[in-house]
Design a protein that fits this description.
Elements (H helix, E strand, L loop, with lengths): L2 E9 L5 E6 L10 E2 L2 E3 L20 H14 L2 E2 L3 E9 L5 E13 L8 E7 L1 H4 L8 H15 L2
Parallel strand pairs: 1-7
Antiparallel strand pairs: 1-4, 2-3, 2-8, 5-7, 6-7
Length: about 150
């Protein structure tokens, strides 16, 4: 079984992206810079009425994304759009599936929870100066290119 996690590259209309620094107590990548995200929990859907007669829930992952972003950085976002997926094995040997998304910033002031010790808004170029988890710079650049194409 895999732990299912999400990350979301949050972007503003001024071309800046939110990056956050992970707590030094995290099991994976302590102290590294990344983008907001976290694990899917049964609590992301179990308290809601099922969306099908068979007792299933649609959009649990979107619920997880919105919850994690609200908890970690206190922001509201637009519709999350799928970017890519990644798998890895944590130091405690737990396999992880990460589903990466991007979403427009809508509102809120950045605040930190216990999992986040710092944050800043950066351009795709500025992100390269930070000690980011491997692959995050490339993901930000992918979103940057997608957004530039959509504005043409």
């Amino acid at each position: 079984m895999h732990r299912i996690a999400t990350t979301t590259i949050i972007y503003r209309d001024d071309g800046k992206y939110l990056i956050t620094r992970r707590s030094l107590e995290k099991k994976a990548f302590p102290g590294k810079w990344t983008v907001p995200g976290g694990g899917l929990s049964i609590d992301d859907y179990i308290a809601m009425p099922p969306t099908t007669a068979a007792g299933q829930w649609y959009n649990a992952l979107e619920s997880c994304i919105r919850r994690e972003i609200k908890e970690e950085v206190g922001l509201e976002i637009g519709k999350p759009e799928y970017l890519l997926d990644l798998t890895f094995i944590r130091p405690d040997q737990v396999p992880v599936l990460v589903l990466s998304y991007h979403a427009r910033y809508l509102s809120g002031e950045v605040k930190h929870d216990e999992d986040t010790i710092d944050s800043t808004w950066v351009t795709a170029e500025e992100a390269k100066a930070f000690d980011l988890i491997e692959g995050i710079v490339e993901e930000i650049e992918m979103v940057d290119q997608l957004l530039k194409k959509s504005f043409k």
